[in-house]
Amino acid sequence: MKKKQWSDKTILKSIPNPSKEAYEIKMKAPEITFEGVRGQPDFALLYITFYPADKVIELKSMKEYFYQFRSKIYSYERLINVVFEDMMSVYEPERLRLVMICNARGGISSKLTIDSDWDSRGGEEKYKDWIGQKEDW
């Protein structure tokens, strides 16, 4: 049985990390568009916190990568996991944290977070900046 391909991660491109020093890159994708169900678009705001290792994200390819979701059906939970898995695979960062805030549908909005540092994701939980954060949305 062939595994379903959720996305085309070959769209994602990288550039060499210009620094070997530790630093954090924060990005905001203000309008991720996808279909929750056929013919009904959904919208999400995505915050990306990226601690690079050897590669950094080439932003134009990131925009093109997100564009592919416009014609595909995803649940919120599946979409954040697809993006996380693709970015981890392509960029191999020291740490990756995604926070996706989805527009209200049926009167309920959602906020999803995923972090490679979590022990449940195989991380060491060495950053722990997510512990005790006050919800501000």
Q: Can you walk through the features of this model?
A:
This protein is an alpha+beta fold and 137 residues long. The chain is 18% helix and 36% strand. It has two helices and six strands; from the N terminus they run E-E-E-E-H-H-E-E. It has helices at 59-67, 76-91; strands spanning 14-16, 25-37, 40-51, 55-57, 95-105, 108-115. The strands form two sheets. The chain has a four-stranded antiparallel beta sheet, covered by helices on one side. It has a two-stranded antiparallel sheet with strand order 1-4. A hairpin with a 2-residue loop joins strand 5 (95-105) and strand 6 (108-115). The longest helix is centred in the middle third of the chain and has 16 residues, at 76-91. The radius of gyration is 15 Å and the shape is globular. The chain starts with 13 loop residues before the first strand and ends in a 22-residue tail after the last strand.
Question: What does the main sheet amount to?
Answer: 4 strands, antiparallel
For this entry, what is the oligomeric state of its chains?
Answer: single chain
Radius of gyration: 15 Å
Shape descriptor reads globular
Output the number of helix runs.
Answer: 2
The low-confidence runs, each spanning 5 or more residues with pLDDT under 50, are none
Strand content: 35-45%
Along the chain, the helix and strand elements come as EEEEHHEE
First-residue to last-residue Cα separation: 42 Å
